[in-house]
Description:
The structure is a homodimer.
Chain A: H1 3-29, H2 34-45, H3 50-53, H4 55-61, H5 66-89, H6 93-98, H7 100-124, H8 137-149, H9 153-162, H10 169-196, H11 204-236, H12 241-261, H13 265-277, H14 284-309, H15 318-343, H16 347-357, H17 361-373, H18 379-404, E1 421-422, H19 430-445, H20 449-462, E2 466-468, E3 471-472, E4 475-478, E5 485-495, E6 505-514, H21 520-531, H22 535-543, H23 547-559
Parallel strand pairs in A: 1-5, 3-6, 4-6
Antiparallel strand pairs in A: 2-3, 5-6
Helix pairs in contact in A: 1-2, 1-5, 1-14, 2-14, 5-12, 5-13, 5-14, 7-8, 7-10, 7-15, 8-10, 9-10, 10-11, 10-16, 11-12, 11-13, 12-13, 15-16, 15-18, 16-18, 17-18, 19-20
Amino acid sequence: MTQGDFVTLLVAIGALLALARTLGELLRRFNLPAVLGEILAGIIVGPTVLGMLAPGLQAQLFPATGPVHVTLSGLAELAVVLFLFVAGMEVDLSTMWERGRTTFVISVFSMSVPFILGFSLAWHVPALFEFDISGDRFVFALFLGTCMAISALPVIARTLMDLNLFHTDFGMVIIAVAIFNDLCGWLIFAGILALIGEGRGFPVRMTIPLTLAYAAVMLTGGRWLIHRCLPWFQAHTAWPGGILALGLILALLNGAFTEWIGVHAIFGAFLFGVAIGDSPHLRQHTRNIIREFISSIFAPLFFATIGLKVNFALHFDFTLVTVLFAFACAGKIVGCSVAARVVGMTARESWGLGFALNSRGAMEIVLGLLGLQFGIINERVFVALVVVALGTSIISGPLMQLVLGLKKPRRIGRYLTGRTYVGHLAAGDSLGAIRQLSQAAAAASGLDTEEVVKAVWAREKIMSTGIGDGVAIPHARMRELAAPVVAVGISPDGIDFNARDGEPARIIFLILTPMRDEGAQLEILADISRTFHNADAREQALNARNYTEFLALLNVGDSA
Amino acid sequence: MTQGDFVTLLVAIGALLALARTLGELLRRFNLPAVLGEILAGIIVGPTVLGMLAPGLQAQLFPATGPVHVTLSGLAELAVVLFLFVAGMEVDLSTMWERGRTTFVISVFSMSVPFILGFSLAWHVPALFEFDISGDRFVFALFLGTCMAISALPVIARTLMDLNLFHTDFGMVIIAVAIFNDLCGWLIFAGILALIGEGRGFPVRMTIPLTLAYAAVMLTGGRWLIHRCLPWFQAHTAWPGGILALGLILALLNGAFTEWIGVHAIFGAFLFGVAIGDSPHLRQHTRNIIREFISSIFAPLFFATIGLKVNFALHFDFTLVTVLFAFACAGKIVGCSVAARVVGMTARESWGLGFALNSRGAMEIVLGLLGLQFGIINERVFVALVVVALGTSIISGPLMQLVLGLKKPRRIGRYLTGRTYVGHLAAGDSLGAIRQLSQAAAAASGLDTEEVVKAVWAREKIMSTGIGDGVAIPHARMRELAAPVVAVGISPDGIDFNARDGEPARIIFLILTPMRDEGAQLEILADISRTFHNADAREQALNARNYTEFLALLNVGDSA
Lengths: 560, 560
């Protein structure tokens, strides 16, 4: 690699990652999946957009041959292997076993119905896909069925967390089914690869039994062995670096094994991830390092490179996308409603289940890309599959909210603005502090300051709102308000809010909610209490020098 | 990349990393630097050993051309950029400024003396290096001087931590000097690259001013800007993924910039690391993820690939190695003793300073590799520099211990064995527990059980050793003992050891030390108290199912 090549490589990776992350973050704000932004980044700097506008620059930044191209492709291939390793780590087999029968029934229906729909469509209407008749129609139909049947565990888990459903019984059933579907989906795909694998290393009559044997061994003996060995590595190697390296090394070597026997490397990495992720000996700290680094760096890089490979505008086929989308959604929803009847769920729940499992997200995209690489599908079908994967993921959360009648819990950050942040409260007593915060809240919401003070003070006199640990939360409901308003003030010297622990309040929140606030006040109070229960968070709040620093601390408390 | 290539790539990375980490961990046990093991791994699977024994296998695993070779080389180049980014993050500029004058004086002498020695050697005895007279002798002499002058901050920091000197005043002076030396060393090297850079992008009269301007801007305005922007990113992006990605993206882009202006990419990554690492807004959690992942995965991979490039046996020159080693050590030690006189340190301290700064570790290896790549030195000189780098790092710790009369604090794990671990104490009272543990300790050390019980019980009667939180530490000094012996017993039901908090003891350590124990008892007690102060650690100790699981928890507590 020459100096020029190396500059190109660094800029290419840096720019791709920067755009992918930026778009991912932007979309996350609108509750859209980050993977959509990451793929868009590739589309923008790939042949679809930049290649049209400035083909010279595009070819210079992302050359189609030469050492930069080889390194970037190699990196993307490694990235997808590591991404599947992390996806496997999220799989908790015990969740699945605990709800054995329910999981099994729902899984069978929620996979078989869309699988049969997809298979039939591909088998009976090959012309829709412009399918080359010389290819193997059976393999193609199997593949399309699998694409329709698969679910995306990471997206589903994320949606459930957003909706506060993750730790409910209903949420756990969904997760268990998604795990089962993931495992089955990849097994079927391994079978497909084995079918087309003739000549690539092993004959099919060996690849399929080898794959099944490998999966069985890894999920039983391998899992047991890893669980037994982890404490030894923890005891005898640098921590957490030793376990970290062990995980990655074995993920790569398991990937090499499955690639060698004729299915893809992601299969081995995924199953090894399941096996190691299941062990309670893998500590949270080590998990976090692996997950954060791979999902913040390698995964966006991989998804962004997809846009570099395919021209999305050229291969976009509206009819195909619409048909596939309709079949995908119908399959999952019908399958789930049948299953829900069998296990005795309500109609509402069956719709919720259907919309939840309908997310195909990253998994279908990876599957589609491999299908493209192995020549099972063409670019048109690939583009359609990507659109279906993203579309089903996008509608999943909102539709679940709708049919289950759920709301996301409200957070303080959403109602706080730079105008309602008072970095230094001048007042020396509680009434003065309430007045100063009321001014800020009134200015931001158009209310009358005096009325706010009156309402809040009336509430304060009934029962003091000093909740201890130096935090006070004066609040009131205001008839004129349409949405909640929160103001926060910092008082370095502390103001007596008559807290039980006798501590003067240093962080004071003023919370105004509408008369019909539908639980907003409670949720905001709960959020404040949870965030500032932490002594570090309180100290950082006192040291924040401006609104952004204060917001930063809320965001950290959020994800921690 | 074909399927076969991808298998090779996965196996090559997996095997290289596995061997590098295994040897690194092995050497760490003998207090040798891990980087030595990582380089040895490359030497073993590279042309030096495997290439001699099984050239066919070696060429198949690590091909010298083709996509696997290109990807692996590209990955190694990225890895060294990221390694220098992390090295920069460890640099704390305020440590340097706080001890301004002392740092400056020691730095000047500790760099200039070895630099002059190295420069003169190269200039006056080029034949020693088999220096090609057609090359640029001035550049070569500058380069060799820099190699003699540089220190390795990470190795030095690690040695100081091992010796419990890191948080002392003396330790901070050493760190400050090492930081200054690192900065100067890389600046000089940037100058050298600029000198030989004619035709590579920019002319030298532009590269040098550009580099200096870049360094100045990054360490002042850039640093300020990063510090100002971090809270915004923390507040408005996913945490910690957003900051993680930001750090890596900017490290790569800064690397691209310095590579483009004609010095190497590592320079930009290093300086950006300094700038971002200095900000208190970069939280510990994010730092840990970056540092652990890069230093556990990318750094070993980079150092291992060095052995793939060069045949170390073929290019080993005993005379050259000996001369360079002597010049390197003499330069640092003389320089430091002169400096120590100027700032008023004792002779002992000046020797300690000299041995500490004599570690060249990873930094000189990176420098040597770049010198080799840019054609400044040949393989013989490169191999000699690697040996000097490793040799000076290895002798640093032991020699400092010797001249400063230091000992490492003793840890429990060192004195505990499988034979002295009693997973389930059957006894119901303290005397019974002491007897059972005494049996285990006596069996392991050859003492008489009854004498041990007598001594420990005598101590116990004077003052009970229940230290609360369910931990008890009966102990005694034994005349017949040469080294400490520790036994530990777990009692799920708890045994009354008369603790202040009234809790029965569930984890009981029996500690026997020699009469002249030189502080061993105290250090072991302190270690137990620190480790088991943590409620998690206590719970894990109770749940440990065997000796290895118990040891694992000690090791985690250790690095956390």
